[in-house]
Amino acid sequence: MASRPVRWCGSSLRGLALASVIANIGIIVTGAAVRLTKSGLGCPTWPRCTDDSYVTTPEMGINGVIEFGNRLLTFVLIAIAVACFLGALARRRRSLVKLSVAVALGIPGQGVIGGITVLTNLNPWVVGLHFILSIALIAGAFALWRRVGEGDGDPVLLVPAPLRQLAWLTTAASLAVIAAGVVVTGSGPHSGDQGAKRNNLDPQQISQIHADLVFLLIGLTVALWFALRAADAPAEAVRAVAVLFWVEMGQGLIGFVQYFTHLPVALVAAHMLGSGLVWFATLAVLWSLRSRPAVQAAPPQPAPEPATTGEPVPAA
Hints:
By secondary structure, the protein is an all-alpha fold. The chain folds into 2 domains: about 1-150; about 155-295, no CATH class. The protein has 8 helices and 2 strands. It is flat, with a radius of gyration of 25 Å. The two termini are about 45 Å apart.
């Protein structure tokens, strides 16, 4: 009976951690909505919405509502992060507490970068940094989500070193694709406001580099799948790579269609969501290559036998 509260707490924390992952992916989409509806300066200052109000005003119109609504979502992320921290404390596992703190500290940082984005009139490089921090927060929340279901023992590696190296190379390519996509975004037409600057790079050339990196990522993913199959790797790892491949294919299809249809808003938003899903699937591949058992308690030591002197024991 004593184990039930711990089991319930673990299930609850795992759900909260998954909610954190979903929320951090979701805020990428809502941030895209701000940019795609030209609402980036709907609240033209920060931390207030206007010089005289912390909230949007009727004069700001729909753009103010959209921008202010995106700001409010930060408080949702904070609430989930605090709940994760409290859940980690209840589990009394230092590893979970550290991860929950890391995610929680990243969210105010995200808010500050968002404020700098507004104060610099949507500088594309600052906007890109805003997005990259979201990618880092997704990684932290994902790690917390997976670690809840694991023990605190030393990691057990499930595949040989060359396959792990190939997986890390695939992860690096995935991150490079995302970073290149940020630069492509900064050169394109959807700036978030009519007066916002662009990064002055050639959109066609940057898009070509981005596409080349996508082909590299797909090639590495296919190679990793065949290598894992040949090495008789665990089914979970093979399945995770297969999922990553199909997510990449869907994301690539959206990317090509949006490019040749001149970046319609709906497809750009779908592509932003896809970037978060590609990163999620990439992280799942890494975590499928090792397990982490519970720490084994030391076996009880036998009580020492009483010392004997060899003298006869007196009768009672």
